[in-house]
Design goal:
The structure is a single chain. By secondary structure, the protein is an alpha/beta fold. The protein is 28% helix and 25% strand. Helix 4 packs parallel to helix 5. The longest helix has 19 residues. The structure holds zinc ion. Zinc ion binds next to helix 3.
Length: 292
Amino acid sequence: MKRLSILLLILFLAFGLAGCGLTTPPEQSNGLSEREVSPGALRVHFLDVGQGDCILVQFPDGRNMLVDAGKNDSAVAIIDYLEARGIARLDYLVGTHPHEDHIGSLDTVIQEFPVGEILLPKVTANTRTFRELLEAIAGKGLQVTTAKAGVNILEEEGLSVKVLAPIGSSYNDLNNYSAVIKITYREVSFLLEGDAESESEKEMLNSGADVRADVLKVGHHGSNSSTSPAFLSIVKPEYAVISLGADNDYHHPHPTTLAKLKKAGVDILRTDERGTIVFTTDGKNINVETVK
Ligand SMILES: [Zn+2]
């Protein structure tokens, strides 16, 4: 059986790739999950951008969404990654909150790609990075949609993208303004927390929002200020993705967060250890690959 698979793979590589002229580089699978995923899939890529967040979502119908764009120095890597996957347009662009490790390269991404809708939480930052983002938005004549609880980015048969937070309008910590996004494709869901901390997590629970998800993009790079036990027990993820740089100055992830996830039996995937992490789902099965 194994020999047959290898033979089929060789035949595919020899004829399949040559025949259809694929430009996308083949991804290295590390065999994390071998469940079959049929065509018509949703793909969620957690890009390894060092200490920061950048998530590409490819919807089954060909539309794309980018949530955050790493730091200022990640622009070339992000644009190369998107172009290598044939991304010609970003239908939805989300800046979860105005910290540099999330919106750093959004300005360049906006200049580089046609953008449909852009969503940002209603909060500003007195930084050069934030001003550059606003200039890029104005330069393209884009209107900003406020990212807040209750906003539905997409709501279609079998597919929805909803903003679950921020719920409040005033927080002491900029992290709690983070747009928290829930993507549901048939039976499979992803919860992208940005840098939301326990205050926002508590508000989501109190609001009765459906936070349950198969894949949790852990809040605030695995800091101890996020992933409260109550929140984790309701989300009940199978996978937790932590987006962070190796040996970062913030000592992320916090050992307590890792311990909480381990105790809950969650499969922890870190971009500093595995590189870019790609989930593919047909709405029922989930396949995980990594791209170094
Ligand atoms: Zn951050």
